[in-house]
Every structure is written in structure tokens, then in C-alpha cells.
Amino acid sequence: MNSKNITSNYKKLNIDEPKISEVPKSQVDNPRANTTQKKYQKQIEWRRNKVRELLIRGYSQYEISNILHMSQPTISRDVNSIYQYIKN
């Protein structure tokens, strides 16, 4: 999408065009980037909560990776993140 189309869209909607310095580059290229990032963060939060819950129940990392259908390194990273959160 070029800048002329963006400018004309703002005029059609009768709203002020934001200054380029106010909008992160990722949102200029992809206006849905912020929403996508929020969804991604929610997915990570959900997964880490599930990993924590299964750890509390006594499951091993291997068992958790099989239950959640995720790789062992991903589960290991989540466990390390959980422990770092507890330390702080």
C-alpha cells in the first residue's frame, strides 16, 4: 500500500492523518499489527498458565509437551520463564 492511498483514505473518512512519528513503522505497513501482537501475547499467556497448572499437578515437561502438542524446547522455555517470574 502506498502513502497516497493511505492519505486519500484518511480524507475519505474525514479524519486527521496521524504524523508518521506517532505511528510505529509496523503499524504503517500493517495496520493490524497491534491486534496481532495482542492476540499473540494472549496465546503465550494462556500456554504458560496451562504449563504452570500442569507442573503444579506433577506432570513432567515431557508429559506436558505431549498433552499440549508442543515441542519440548517450547515447554522448557515456558518453564524457565515461569521460574524467572517467580524469582522477581
Are there runs of 5+ residues with pLDDT below 50, and where? none
Order of helices and strands, N to C? HHHHH
Mean pLDDT over all positions:
78
The number of distinct helices, counting runs of at least 4 residues, comes to: 5
Radius of gyration: 21 Å
Structural class by secondary-structure content: mainly alpha
User: How many structural domains are formed by the residues?
Assistant: 2
Biggest β-sheet description: none
Total number of strands: 0
- Helical content, roughly? over 70%
Please report the distance between the alpha carbons of the first and last residues.
44 Å
Beta-strand content bin = under 5%
The best one-word shape is: elongated
Task: Give an overview of the whole structure.
With 88 residues, the protein is mainly α. It has two domains: 1-31, no CATH class; 35-88. Helices cover 73% and strands 0% of the residues. Helix 3 crosses helix 5 and helix 4 (61-68) crosses helix 5 (72-87). The chain is elongated and about 60 Å long.
List the helices and strands and how they pair.
Layout: H1 3-13, H2 25-29, H3 33-56, H4 61-68, H5 72-87
Quick tags:
mainly alpha, 2 domains, elongated, 88 residues
Provide a compact summary of the structure.
Helices cover 73% and strands 0% of the residues. The protein is mostly helical and 88 residues long.
